[in-house]
Fold these 2 entries.
Entry 1:
Amino acid sequence: MKLRRSLIALLSALLLYPVSSGIAATERGYLEPVIDRGMAFPILRTDWYSVINFRNDWHAPRMRFINGRWRQVGIHEGNDIFAEPGTPIVAIVPGRIERVGWTFYSGWRVGVRDGGGRYWFYAHMRRYAPDVEVGASVDSGDRLGEVGNTGYGADPGHHDEFPAHLHVGIQEPDGRWSNPYPLIKDLYKASVKGL
Ligand SMILES: [Zn+2]
C-alpha cells in the first residue's frame, strides 16, 4: 500500500514537472527566468496554465471618470503586462534600486537605474521581494516583487481599481520615456523558446 502510494506520487510529480522543457522549475512551479543578451522578461512563467497578456499600448489615452465625466488624464508612457496576481516580477536589466515605495498612480513601485543611466520602472506591485530597498544592486532576473493592482489612490495599499498587471516604464538618461514594447516582445519570445 505504501509502495503504491509513493509510486503514484512519483508518477504525478513526473506529470506535473515535465523534464523535457530544459528549464528548471523553482518553488510553486515558477520557472527560472530566461536571460537573453543579459536581459530577462520581467514576469516569471509557470509550468501550470496561466495567462500572460500584453500588447503595444504605448501612448494609449488614459481616461478617468471625474465629476460625472470621462476625462483624459494623460497618455500611457509604458507597457502593461497582464498576469495572475502574485506572479513574481524580476528585473529586466542589472542596476541599482533608486526608488521604492508608494505613489498615487503607480501604487507600490520599484525604480532601477542601470549602468548606462536608463531608469527602469516597475509599478502596481502587490508586494515587494525580500531585500528590495534603495541602494541595493539587482541582476537581471532577480526578484523585485509580485504582480498586483495597487495604485490610483492616495492611501498606501489602495488596490482593485483595475485588473492586475505590471507596468514597465523605461526613462532615457535625457528624461524622456521610451516605448518598452519592442524589447518586451523580444524578451517574451526568448522566454518561451525552450517550452
Ligand atoms: Zn501602464
Note: The chain has a mean pLDDT of 88.
Entry 2:
Amino acid sequence: MRVSMHRIIDLRSDTVTKPTAAMRRAIAGADVGDDWYGDDPTVNLLQDRVAELTGKQAAAFLPTGTLCNQIAMHAYVRSGHFVVCEAQSHVCGMELHSAAALSGVAFRRVPARSHGQLTAEDLERSLEPDPYDVGVVDLVVVENTHQLGGGWPAPVASVAELAAVATARGVPLYLDGARLFNACAATGATVAEYATHSDALMLSLSKGMGAPIGSLLAGDADFIREVRRLKILFGAAWRQAGIMAAAGLVALDEGHERLISDHENARRLAAGVAEILPGSVDPSAVPTNIVFVDVTGTGRTPWQWAECLASVGVLVTAVPGRVRMLTHRDIGPADIDAVIAAWKRIESASVTEPEKTCPPHAGDCGGGGRRSRVAEGPISPSAAAATADRSSGISVSRSATPGGRGNYTSSGLAGGSLRAVGNTTDSASSDPRGHWRHRY
Ligand SMILES: Cc1ncc(COP(=O)(O)O)c(C=O)c1O
C-alpha cells in the first residue's frame, strides 16, 4: 500500500476534525445576538440543551475546555489552596501555569496505580486533614476519560465512590469531561449519570464530537452565575457566539454513538502496530479513541517516529517514551490501514535499510537522511507546519525535542537537526520572546 502525498492522515488529536456540511449550514443560518448581554438565542438554546443533558440547573458556553477548567478552579479554589487530582491530569499538567497565573492554585497530585484511575482509598488519603490546618483542599478534579491514562473511562460507580469520599470531607468534585462523551460511548452510561456525582462538570464539543469550537460548564444556578461573571472578567464574553453554538447543537443532535466506531478504529490500529512492534501496545487496553505506542527499544525516539511518520503523511504526537495517536470522525477504516502500512514500512526500512530511513527534508529521524522508499515525497508544508495542537500543548518547531520535564513537545517536521530545548543553556539567548518571559 502506498501512502498518498495528497492525503494527510492527522492523528495528532481528535480536535482536528473539520465541521460537517450540516454544521456549516447551521453556522450560516444561525440566529444570533450579543452573548455579553446573554441574548444570543442560539447560545442560550445550546446552554439549555446541555443543562438538560447533564441534569444540572444551568450551563455556560465557553471557547475552550481549558477556560472551563480555569474558570471552575477560580470559582471553587481560593488562592494558595489545593486542588486534588490524579498526577497526570490535564489540569495539573498542561494547565499548571494557567492555574498558577490566573488563580494561585496549588495542586496535590495523586499518582494512580493504573490508567489514570484514582481509587476511593487514594482520594481518602489525599484528603486527610492537615494537623496544622495549613494545607486546605478546596476541590477534587476527576478527568474522564483520562487522556494520558490512554483514554481510560471511569465507570459511573467509581466516580460515585470518589464523590462519596469528597462529600464526606466537604470538598466539591469537578469533572473534567473533555472526553466524557467517549466515556459514555464506552461504558453505556449517560452524561447525566456521571453528572449526578459531580458538583460541576465540563463537556467539550470540539473533541471527537466534531464541532469546530466550544466547551460548556454545567452546574447549579449560583455556580453558573459566577461562571458568567468570570467569563467576562477573563475576557471571554464573546458576542455573536451563536454561529459556533449552532455547530455545537448539530454535534449534540448527531449524538455520541458514532464515537464507538472511533474506538473500534483505535483498537484495530493498536492491533496492527502491536503486530509490527510486539509489546509496544496492548490493544485490549485501548478502551476509547487514544492509542499510545511505547517505542522504547525500537532504535528511534518518539520524536523520530513522529518525524518519519510525518514524512509519509501521517501526523502523530510524541510524548516521552511514547507515540500518541487519536482516532476521530475524519478517520475511516482505510486510513487505519494506511497508518498501519506506514508504521510497517518505516519499521522495516530501519531493519533492512538503515541508511535509507528518512527523506532529507524530514531531518534526522534515525536513519541516514537519504530519500527513503517509505516516502512518497514531501508532505505539504502547510500541513507540516500547521501542527500546533493547543489541546495537548504540542507546538511543532524546527528544533523541538523532549524538554526533559515530562511536558509534551513534538518533532521538527521541516528539517534541521534535533536540539534539546527548555533545559539547555543556549536556548535563552535565542529566545524570541525576549523579556516577555519575565513579565509576571
Ligand atoms: C482532559 C482534557 N481537559 C481539557 C482539555 C483542554 O481543552 P481545550 O483544548 O478545548 O482547551 C484537554 C485538551 O485536549 C484535555 O485532553
Note: The chain has two domains: 9-15+258-438, 31-254.
